[in-house]
Amino acid sequence: MNLETLLWGVLPTLLAVCAVFVSLLVTFRLRRPGHVLTSILVLAGVVLSLIILYRIFVLGAWPTYLPHVAIGGVLLIVIIQAFLFGKTRHSTP
């Protein structure tokens, strides 16, 4: 495995999978409609990104930065979701 595959394929994949797990964890703990919709959005973005990364690195498709931008956006959404989860958890008696 070369450095390019590691930086542009494996690392974004690991970040995306971790983002899905964190989002689902927050959703299962709070069970609110906003968090459910956010988790669905995160899951859809990650699935689309992983399909594109698979096509680039395994099938040899033309490279693009779209999956990396989508994974970055998903990470921002998950950070906001986790921040709101921490705020909600500490504010309830």
Roughly what is the average pLDDT, rounded to an integer? 91
Q: List segments where confidence is low: pLDDT < 50 over at least 5 consecutive residues.
A: none
Structural class: mainly alpha
Number of domains: 1
Kindly estimate the percentage of residues that lie in beta strands according to DSSP. Answer: under 5%
What key attributes describe this structure?
93 residues, mainly alpha
Textual characterization of the structure:
- With 93 residues, the protein is mainly alpha-helical.
- The protein has one domain.
- It has helices spanning 3-30, 33-57, 66-91.
- It starts with a helix and ends with a helix.
- The mean pLDDT is 91.
Quick recap of the structure?
By secondary structure, the protein is mainly alpha-helical.
Question: What are the SSEs and their pairings?
Answer:
Elements: H1 3-30, H2 33-57, H3 66-91
Helix pairs in contact: 1-2, 1-3, 2-3
